[in-house]
Write a structure and sequence with these properties.
The chain is of the alpha/beta class and 361 residues long. The chain has 16 helices and seven strands. The protein has a five-stranded mixed β-sheet. A two-stranded antiparallel sheet has the order 3-4.
């Protein structure tokens, strides 16, 4: 069964990858990998992507009939979900426009602001919006509070002071939480994607007739690459990936042309980056080249490939990774000491995290 998971994972990547031609995929309705492939697609948040991709690659007739019916129902549900999210974005955008604030929509929200993203929506955890000006950030928070958005009662505002975004905001009657960004990425990654440079070349558009902005394509690629390699959740270092994020990156790269390669300016920035940043990106790009057929310009390092394969085969990270996670200090000593029993539960939590059993935040 473990070998089946590894094989099904490789097959799923081929189905999803824009660079993969249908002639490289051999499938029939009787293929024993379908059930495992379905489970992996669900776990990787790409189940809604399967039907459009299978149709695009001429593989619709290869899908077992019960699964085809399920995928068609998911497609219908996603269309309804897309309409809800778009309405939420338009409401926020309208309130910002009244206040004279130009939002820069990021990540999945940037995709949703485009006609193609509305036609073929993907699963999303939240809406990300960047307000570059600190003064306008304060104004935007007031606008959102007036709309009914508020911070989770469990969030401590001071915990987010050094974050690249404010504490997530929730609305009791809207489907998606909102993250308002101070910066595009964490400060430690700012040299890869500087705010000032990205702001200067933002792409301006409209949503429902009102002004919005999106990052330029090269900056969206860099942002997605940082998300996949340096800010991945769950951490890619322990062999767990979310193919939804990899698919986003592959699609953005494909917009640059049929060669399916990173743009020269992105490669130049990566090669000039310090080793602590470049090395995990190199390991990610080795995995990305193997699974999504996008050329890796930084040289081969199979660390992440090996760890991902180990997880697929054994259901948990390698013992060396589990031990390292166990010995890591907590990210917040204040949080660790805030409740009785927290220290005693540290080892149990670390083991659950290493096994991928913790609930993502």
């Amino acid at each position: 069964m473990s070998l089946m998971r590894k094989d099904a994972h490789a097959l799923l990547c081929r189905i999803l990858a824009p660079a993969s031609a249908c002639t490289t995929i051999g499938l029939t309705p009787e293929d024993p990998r379908w059930t495992t492939l379905f489970e992996l697609a669900d776990a990787n948040l790409v189940l809604p992507e399967l039907l459009p991709q299978l149709i695009d690659k001429g593989l619709r007739e290869s899908v077992p009939e019960p699964m085809l019916a399920c995928l068609a129902e998911i497609d219908t549900l996603m269309a309804a979900r897309s309409a809800e999210l778009l309405a939420q974005m338009k409401e926020i955008n309208g309130a910002f426009a009244e206040a004279g604030i130009l939002p820069v929509w990021l990540k999945g929200a940037a995709l949703m602001s485009e006609p193609e993203g509305q036609r073929r929506p993907r699963l999303m955890h939240d809406l990300d919006v960047w307000i570059p000006s600190p003064k306008e950030q304060t104004d935007a928070l007031a606008v959102l509070a007036h709309l009914g958005y508020e911070m989770d009662s469990k969030a401590v505002a001071t915990d987010w002071q050094d974050s690249h975004h404010y504490a997530p905001l929730y609305h009791p009657e809207r489907p998606m939480r909102l993250e308002l960004h101070r910066h595009i990425v964490r400060k430690s990654f700012g040299d890869l994607l500087p705010d000032d440079r990205a702001l200067a070349r933002c792409e301006h558009a409209t949503l429902d007739g009102l002004p919005i902005a999106r990052l330029a394509l090269a900056d969206r690629v860099m942002h997605s690459l940082i998300q996949c390699s340096l800010m991945s959740t769950p951490p890619i270092e322990r062999g767990q990936v979310k193919l939804m994020k990899l698919l986003d990156l592959a699609r953005l790269i494909a917009r640059g042309g049929p060669h399916h390669a990173l743009a020269p300016e992105v490669v130049e920035t990566l090669r000039a980056s310090p080793l602590p940043l470049r090395k995990p990106i190199q390991r990610f790009l080795t995995l990305f080249e193997r699974d999504f057929l996008v050329a890796n310009p930084l040289g081969k390092d199979t660390r992440y490939c090996d760890t991902v394969d180990y997880c697929l085969l054994h259901g948990h990270p390698p013992p060396s990774i589990m031990m390292r996670l166990l010995l890591q200090p907590p990210t917040s000593w204040r949080q660790l000491l805030s409740e009785p029993g927290e220290i005693g539960n540290k080892i149990v939590r670390r083991i659950r995290q290493s096994l991928g059993q913790s609930t993502p935040a």
